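[job 0412] stage=complex_fold ligand=2-acetamido-2-deoxy-beta-D-glucopyranose status=START
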Amino acid sequence: MANLIFFIALLVLLLPISAALLDAWLTDANATFYGDMYGGGTMQGACGYGDLYKQGYGLETTALSTALFNNGYACGACFEIVCRNIPGWNYCKKGSIVVTATNFCPPNYGGGTGHWCNPPYKHFDLSMKMFTTIAEYRAGIVPIYYRRVPCHKQSGVKFELKGNPYWFMVLVYNVGNAGDVYGVRIKGSNTGWLTMSKNWGQNWDIRGNLVGQRLSFLVTTSDGKTLELEDVAPSNWQFGQSYEGKYNF
Ligand SMILES: *[C@@H]1O[C@H](CO)[C@@H](O)[C@H](O)[C@H]1NC(C)=O
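[job 0412] stage=complex_fold status=DONE, emitting structure tokens
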């Protein structure tokens, strides 16, 4: 009897957990594609990344609708996506894809078709390469299931330094695990830790002159984890150059 009660208690405890895991995978949305098979049209974008090949994201990318973009904080997050067949409709291919959020799919309040990125729709505008990996090209738009997954990155977190002697900006990219950066602090060899502001996408800025100083960074991701990366850039760092931290999340 005691065993039975224990068993039921265990079941009651475990049920919501498994339901939550299932929910995570069964979140539904729709997907379309933009750009061409070679990534034309998907480079650059609202996250502030540049040449996605050079930066390691390649064609495994997506733009997010307003409901998912979170004002650019979602930039760098990774999602696994499967196509969802509906009865009488066979446009799905087998298997899933993993993509990184690198762009924004803007709402369209005008006439005609293509309102799928309007709030409150959860929508993924995939690179053509990724879309045609999970669905037939001719489908155009497909229902999907998605879930957040950890981002797997080679090498350390990378920083592209921008701005001028009065105003400093850094693009944070190649971020592993959660992938989406929520906070950045910087330390020059002559300063303490300074909090940077999100400018746009994953570009973070601060006023002041950091020329000629070694630069260290504290990066915080959406899961609350903070990584300290010391002396990422040497004192002779240059605007427009990228530097790599020793570690990743
Ligand atoms: C997907 O698109 C269909 C058809 O336009 C729409 O009814 C549905 O609400 C969309 N799903 C989501 C999650 O936005």
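The pocket of 2-acetamido-2-deoxy-beta-D-glucopyranose is lined by residues 28-30, 121-122, 143 (CB under 6 Å).
[job 0412] exit 0
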